[in-house]
Design goal:
disordered N terminus, alpha+beta, about 350 residues, four-stranded antiparallel β-sheet, 9 helices, seven-stranded mixed β-sheet, about 20% strand, 13 strands
Length: about 350
């Protein structure tokens, strides 16, 4: 199953989150968050030809898709290009992005109705543009929910968390009201990716490579190139809605280097500004000039869900004996010893 992102690179407004595996972050725009591992980081992205600031990342593995909702890998690369209503910051807290604030009972954004349902109002930033110039609106949010709750949305790793939303209302282009059938503790962690309705409506989202291989977002970077087996390259969105000064990097190149020894040797050679390493490689690079090692506590897990909320899930897991057989097949000794 997909785990949380390894690295979130955006600008001074968006931090780098290090999760689940040993990794590295550039000192200037980044801060480590989680992951029971080690990291090394360069002092900054070095200016390249023409004075452009290019961040070169030694990335662990090539992705399956650039659709952040359906990828079964980490989504650090995708989130440089796409925004959500929320995201997690360097303190592993959820903060609003496309939303002006996270609704609560205190700010009036959450109202419990007499019938037990809950109305949750998200107020969106105005003037946000997709990379093709189209305006981001509440229709994009409801379209994203419709996809997640569909049969195809089973590819979304936490689809179950969205199934309690029984209605998505759009009072105006900058307001979304979710109606929940009951209280949801995870509500503030959802919608970390929003899909463009004007691009994907009427398409098979799972197979539409025009988006999955070159996503259109509202984020600080735009997709440039995906060279299979080698790298993905993104460049600064000069019309980023947060302001002309962001992001503070002109380009990021994510190079796929699956072998950890090759990655650490590339870092030693100074070929990359940031690179994922393993805990047993810390001693090799802890005194490497221009780099800093960050030991990051773990904040990741692997889940296996018996989702019986869909027709397909019911066919697979509705029989209690099937679920019992899977539970009996789990070797619990490694889990109990950590």
């Amino acid at each position: 199953m997909k785990q949380n992102t390894w690295i979130k690179i955006v600008s001074l407004l968006m931090v780098v989150a290090l999760l689940s595996t040993a990794c590295a972050a550039p000192a200037a725009p980044a801060a480590p968050v989680a992951g029971d591992n080690a990291a090394t980081d360069a002092q900054a992205a070095a200016p390249a030809e023409g004075g452009r600031k290019i961040l070169r990342v030694a990335y662990g593995a090539e992705l399956d898709t650039l659709n952040a909702l359906t990828s079964q890998n980490l989504t650090d690369i995708e989130i440089t290009m796409v925004d959500g209503l929320i995201m997690s910051d360097n303190n592993n807290s959820y903060v609003p992005v496309l939303a002006k604030e996270i609704p609560t009972t205190e700010n009036g954004g959450i109202v419990v109705k007499d019938d037990g349902t809950i109305e949750m109002t998200w107020n969106l930033h105005e003037g946000v543009k997709w990379h093709d110039g189209e305006e981001f609106t509440s229709a994009d949010v409801c379209f994203t929910l419709d996809f997640i709750q569909s049969e195809a949305g089973q590819a979304v790793y936490n689809q179950t968390d969205y199934m309690g939303i029984i209605d998505c209302q759009m009072p105006d282009p900058y307001t979304v009201v979710f109606v929940w059938d009951k209280v949801s503790a995870a509500y503030a962690t959802l919608f970390d990716t929003i899909l463009p309705k004007h691009v994907l409506e009427g398409q098979d989202v799972l197979t539409y490579d025009a988006y999955n291989r070159s996503p259109l977002g509202t984020g600080p970077f735009k997709f440039v190139e995906w060279k299979p087996g080698e790298y993905i390259r993104v460049e600064k969105n000069t019309d980023y809605w947060r302001g002309d000064e962001y992001p503070m990097i002109d380009e990021i190149v994510f190079s796929f280097i699956p072998d950890p020894n090759t990655r650490v040797n590339a870092l030693k050679a100074g070929e990359y500004d940031i690179g994922q390493i393993l805990p047993n490689q810390v001693k090799e690079v802890q005194d490497l000039a221009g780099y800093k090692v960050d030991l990051v506590p773990a904040n990741s897990w692997i889940i296996f869900e018996f989702n019986v909320a869909t027709e397909r899930g019911q066919k697979l897991f509705s029989d209690p004996n099937v679920r019992k057989a899977i539970f009996h097949a789990i070797d619990r000794r490694p889990l109990s010893t950590g």
